[in-house]
């Protein structure tokens, strides 16, 4: 059977990685992607942060930094979307080339450095989407500080103030290895001060449905430090934790020519590391805070493993490069079958069941 979309996806790999990504995003923005259904199959819906997620799957932050293809991405059948990372001011990011495929490893390395058009452009695109699609699936924004900022805390404060009334959740990205200010809050006191301020800014807006605040962590954090950071996050009253960002580590079994490029590694080699970290955080939090599982998901079985380890929501990105946009549909169907086969009537029952 002729599969236009998967053939087109493979054709994009003939271009340099960043060019292929740009073409894919433009195609989705123009309605050229395949269309799935967010609420099928059954058993995948849940309520988090007073929002309804028809299924737990999304493409992770970094795919649509500027929110140019929100409706196109949602039409793939995902249950929610996270755009960004966005910085207050536009920035070009790091010099090219800065995105590399590791095809033999089903992985990628990036050192993009939060290249984006800035907060005003993203806000305009989100508002336009919200005007047209009044019953949209949940939308989140990944927040980052400008690389040349002398006050990265103030950058996050501006972003929360700007986006709080327009979206369903905000992810504070404190774990990007590719930006000068990407890791400055990975110490307890700076993190505590930042989170207290961001919660204050969100709450004083007195919104009827305030957005959830999430923190995105690195898989490279030592567990003794992770214990402290998670305690800070929970005590601050943060609503969720995303686990995990890319890794600067390089597994010994990588075989692709680009394996030694500088940057964050994503894709299949990250799966075990990020899932074990997810499982650990679920245990130390007692399952009392929703977790978003990211890293190496390329099948329904992978998504199921993340959920059983403690994830309420799951994000995918790198696998789409190699398997095409129909992967979303396949993961959802396989996930539903696995839930049923293991005696779970809903995704909620499976969360953290292998801990």
Question: How would you explain this protein's 3D organization?
Answer:
This protein has a single domain (about 5-350), classed as Alpha-Beta Barrel (TIM Barrel). Helix 5 (about 150-165) packs parallel to helix 6 (about 190-205) and helix 7 packs across helix 8 (about 270-285). The protein has helices spanning about 5-10, 15-30, 70-75, 120-130, 150-165, 190-205, 225-235, 270-285, 300-310, 320-325, 325-340, 345-350; strands spanning about 45-50, 50-55, 55-60, 80-85, 100, 105-110, 140-145, 170-175, 210-215, 240-245, 265, 290-295, 310-315. Strand 1 (about 45-50) and strand 2 form a beta hairpin. The protein is of the alpha/beta class and about 350 residues long.
Write the layout of secondary structure elements.
Layout (H helix, E strand, L loop, with lengths): L3 H9 L4 H13 L16 E3 L2 E3 L3 E3 L10 H5 L6 E6 L12 E4 L4 E4 L8 H14 L6 E5 L8 H12 L5 E5 L14 H17 L7 E6 L5 H14 L3 E4 L20 E4 L3 H15 L5 E4 L5 H10 L1 E6 L1 H6 L3 H15 L5 H4 L5
Parallel strand pairs: 3-13, 4-7, 7-8, 8-9, 9-10, 10-12, 12-13
Antiparallel strand pairs: 1-2, 5-6, 6-11
């Amino acid at each position: 059977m002729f599969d236009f979309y998967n053939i087109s996806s493979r054709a994009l790999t003939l271009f340099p990685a960043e060019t292929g990504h740009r073409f894919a995003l433009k195609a989705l923005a123009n309605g050229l992607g395949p269309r799935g259904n967010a609420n099928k199959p059954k058993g995948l819906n849940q309520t988090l942060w007073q929002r309804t997620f028809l299924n737990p799957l999304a493409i992770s932050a970094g795919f649509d930094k500027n929110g140019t293809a929100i409706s196109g991405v949602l039409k793939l059948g995902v249950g929610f979307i996270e755009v960004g990372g966005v910085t207050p001011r536009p920035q070009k990011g790091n010099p090219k080339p800065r995105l590399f495929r590791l095809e033999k490893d089903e992985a990628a390395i990036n050192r993009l450095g939060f290249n984006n058009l800035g907060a005003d452009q993203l806000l305009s695109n989100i508002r336009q989407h919200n005007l047209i699609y009044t019953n949209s699936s949940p939308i989140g924004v990944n927040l980052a500080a400008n690389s040349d900022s002398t006050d990265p805390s103030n950058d996050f404060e501006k972003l929360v103030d700007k986006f709080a009334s327009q979206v369903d959740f905000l992810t504070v990205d404190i774990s990007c290895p590719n930006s000068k200010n990407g890791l400055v809050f990975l110490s307890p006191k700076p993190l505590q001060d930042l989170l207290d301020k961001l919660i204050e800014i969100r709450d004083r807006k007195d919104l009827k449905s305030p957005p959830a605040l999430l923190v995105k962590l690195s898989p490279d954090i030592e567990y003794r430090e992770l214990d402290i950071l998670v305690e800070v996050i929970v005590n601050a009253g943060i609503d969720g934790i995303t686990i995990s960002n890319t890794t600067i580590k390089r597994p010994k079994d990588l075989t692709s020519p680009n394996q030694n490029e500088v940057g964050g590694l994503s894709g299949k080699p990250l799966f075990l590391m990020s899932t074990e970290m997810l499982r650990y955080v679920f245990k130390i939090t007692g399952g009392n805070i929703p977790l978003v599982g990211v890293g190496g998901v390329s099948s329904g079985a992978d998504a199921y493993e993340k959920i059983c380890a403690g994830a309420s929501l799951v994000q995918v990105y790198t696998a789409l490069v190699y398997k095409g946009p129909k992967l979303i549909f396949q993961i959802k169907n396989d996930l539903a079958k696995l839930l049923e086969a293991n005696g779970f009537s809903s995704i909620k029952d499976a969360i953290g069941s292998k801990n």
